[in-house]
């Protein structure tokens, strides 16, 4: 950009290197650019290609978005070149979070360069970073700009983390599962394992755990919160979070490429997240040849992968029932024995020829969920998959495996009535009869789930359309930034 061209307010965006966290924040970056901001997305060399679809779209649409690539110094204990959560086993998660703090000084140096240059977007006026990057609050404060927290896991999860970090370790003493927060009129019930799992982190005194505690606590001090949710879904927890934090909270979701709502443009979503491993026309022809809402889509996000025992029982369940299915099977990350995961029973694929489509690797999930022949989604209830299914009117069969997925599943089954419970736990071997019952309930419309999915889908679309709650929140956030 030539010198002294009219500069728009410039925002530095820092996603956490995991697909479930990066995908929605990159969609938000596109939306904010459409609202007249200039944005720089910071990441590391191994994650650079994940920005390509966004940068390509920005150049074709004339939006001000650029990448800032900063090398990640090697970290003892992390396999060399591993800079994304999908590349490592989950037990190295905290080490990856800890390793990213090495980017603090390079960010400060880059910021000074922007200040001293008449070219480019100019120095950022604020930073939006993932809630796993709490330490960036210190960097932003040092640079004299506000830091806004991006929550990719919904308002309940944001409230849970916020309130527990604010009142830990006191909470560990109480054996009451109802927590009384001074800011809230009513006690809030938390499942014990939610307090104890965070409690573990409090008990550990190793430098990484101490750093994670310190970092997560800085979210409490940050200037504001952007949450990938919408009011119809989580207004109560938006309000709780605002009361407990005393900071601005904006629901800006569901965060998707605008193409998701336009059948003519849907094919542009083929590359969301990363290039798919299946030929587009192959699976679209296959889906086009199926009956309306007759296909079950099976995918467990960008992290989880099934052991061979789990695959065997899942396959038996699918073989014992009639419905058509698309099953996405992920290869395990490095460090996990490849031959112990994702191996289908002998001859299964041939026997399922015509009824089942296996996708190995990465599937165009939004494109599949938006196809009229998809009538159900067996999911691990990651928040993005949850929002995508609800927004596209597809009811779910739940199999939570980690983190927030357990309470996402409860929300779907017990509160929103848009999901059917099937299995729980990352290592649990599913039961083929539970599968038959869950599928029948969903596709035979024995329950309300399909109808509820259609109702919630309408609410989600209204939220992001002009005048909708999330649309107005984005406008309000942008005008705050432009002040
Ligand atoms: C926020 C947090 O991120 C994590 O993400 P994870 O990848 O497991 O799952 P999703 O949130 O569904 O995110 C996965 C994202 O990858 C997309 N996708 C996935 C597989 C594929 O083959 N093709 C695709 O397009 C999918 O459409 C979604 O957008 C944790 O679960 C956590 O529970 C969740 O709240």
List the helices and strands and how they pair.
Blueprint: E1 10-14, H1 19-34, E2 38-43, H2 52-61, E3 65-69, H3 93-99, H4 104-115, E4 126-130, H5 136-143, E5 147-151, H6 154-167, H7 170-173, E6 178-179, E7 188-189, H8 192-203, H9 207-221, E8 224-227, H10 231-245, E9 249-251, H11 280-288, E10 295-299, H12 308-319, E11 324-329, H13 348-351, E12 356-360, H14 365-369, E13 374-379, H15 383-391, E14 396-398, H16 405-415, E15 419-421, H17 432-443, H18 449-464, H19 469-482
Parallel strand pairs: 1-2, 1-4, 2-3, 4-5, 5-8, 8-9, 10-11, 10-13, 11-12, 13-14, 14-15
Antiparallel strand pairs: 6-7
Helix pairs in contact: 3-9, 4-5, 6-9, 6-10, 12-17
Bound molecules: ligand AWU.
The ligand C[C@@H]1O[C@H](OP(=O)(O)OP(=O)(O)OC[C@H]2O[C@@H](n3ccc(=O)[nH]c3=O)[C@H](O)[C@@H]2O)[C@H](O)[C@H](O)[C@H]1O binds next to α1, α14 and α15.
Describe this structure in words.
The chain has 483 residues and is of the alpha/beta class. The chain has helices spanning 19-34, 52-61, 93-99, 104-115, 136-143, 154-167, 170-173, 192-203, 207-221, 231-245, 280-288, 308-319, 348-351, 365-369, 383-391, 405-415, 432-443, 449-464, 469-482, and strands spanning 10-14, 38-43, 65-69, 126-130, 147-151, 178-179, 188-189, 224-227, 249-251, 295-299, 324-329, 356-360, 374-379, 396-398, 419-421. The protein folds into two domains: 10-255, Glycogen Phosphorylase B (Rossmann fold, 3-Layer(aba) Sandwich), CATH 3.40.50.2000; 277-462, Rossmann fold (3-Layer(aba) Sandwich). It contains 19 helices and 15 strands. The protein has a seven-stranded parallel β-sheet, sandwiched between helices. α3 (93-99) packs across α9 (207-221). The protein is globular, with a radius of gyration of 22 Å. The mean pLDDT is 90. Residues 19-21, 23, 152-153, 272-273, 299, 301-303, 328, 362-363, 365-366, 382-385, 388, 403-405 line the site of the ligand C[C@@H]1O[C@H](OP(=O)(O)OP(=O)(O)OC[C@H]2O[C@@H](n3ccc(=O)[nH]c3=O)[C@H](O)[C@@H]2O)[C@H](O)[C@H](O)[C@H]1O. InterPro entries: UDP_glucos_trans, UDP_glycos_trans_CS. It is an enzyme of class 2 (transferase). GO terms for molecular function: UDP-glucosyltransferase activity. Pfam families: UDPGT.
């Amino acid at each position: 950009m030539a010198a002294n061209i009219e500069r728009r307010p410039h925002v530095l965006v820092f996603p956490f290197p995991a697909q479930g966290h990066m995908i929605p924040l990159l969609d938000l970056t596109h939306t904010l650019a459409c609202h007249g901001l200039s944005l720089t997305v910071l990441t590391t060399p191994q994650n650079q290609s994940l920005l390509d679809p966004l940068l390509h779209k920005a150049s074709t649409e004339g939006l001000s978005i650029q990448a800032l690539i900063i090398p990640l110094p090697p970290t003892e204990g992390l396999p060399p070149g591993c800079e994304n959560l999908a590349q490592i086993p989950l037990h190295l998660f905290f080490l990856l979070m800890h390793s990213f703090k090495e980017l603090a000084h390079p960010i400060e140096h880059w910021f000074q360069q922007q200040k001293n240059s008449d070219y480019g977007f100019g120095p950022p006026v604020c930073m939006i970073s993932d809630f796993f990057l709490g330490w960036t609050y210190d960097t932003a404060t040092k640079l004299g700009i506000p830091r806004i927290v991006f929550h990719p896991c919904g308002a309940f999860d944001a409230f849970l983390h916020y309130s527990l970090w604010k009142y830990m370790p006191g909470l560990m003493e109480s054996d009451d599962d109802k927590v009384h927060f001074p800011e809230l009129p009513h006690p809030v019930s938390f499942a014990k394992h939610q307090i104890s799992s965070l409690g573990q982190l409090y008990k550990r005194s190793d430098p990484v755990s101490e750093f994670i505690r310190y970092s997560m606590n800085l979210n409490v001090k940050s200037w504001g919160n952007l949450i990938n949710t919408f009011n119809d879904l989580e207004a109560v927890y938006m309000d709780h979070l605002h009361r407990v934090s005393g900071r601005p909270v904006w629901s800006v979701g569901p965060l998707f490429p605008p193409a998701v709502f336009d059948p003519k443009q849907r094919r542009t979503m083929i590359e969301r997240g990363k290039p798919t491993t299946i030929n587009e026309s192959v699976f679209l022809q296959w889906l086009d040849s199926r009956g309306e809402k007759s296909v079950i889509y099976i995918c467990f996000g960008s992290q989880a992968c099934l052991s061979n025992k789990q695959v065997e029982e899942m396959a038996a369940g699918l073989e014992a029932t009639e419905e058509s299915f698309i099953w996405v099977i992920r290869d395990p990350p490095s460090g996990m024995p490849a031959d112990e995961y994702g191996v289908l029973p002998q001859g299964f694929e041939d026997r399922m020829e015509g009824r089942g489509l296996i996708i190995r690797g990465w599937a165009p999930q939004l494109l599949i969920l938006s196809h009229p022949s998809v009538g159900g989604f067996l999911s691990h209830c990651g928040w993005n998959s949850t929002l995508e299914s609800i927004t596209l009117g597809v009811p779910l069969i739940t199999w939570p495996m980690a983190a927030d997925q357990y309470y996402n599943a409860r929300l779907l089954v017990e509160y929103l009535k848009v999901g059917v419970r099937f299995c729980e736990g990352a290592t649990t071997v599913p039961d083929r009869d539970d599968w038959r019952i869950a599928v029948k309930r969903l596709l035979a419309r024995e329950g309300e789930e399909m109808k509820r999915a259609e109702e919630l889908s309408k609410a989600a679309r209204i939220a992001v359309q002009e005048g909708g709650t999330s649309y107005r929140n984005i406008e309000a956030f942008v005008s705050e930034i432009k002040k």
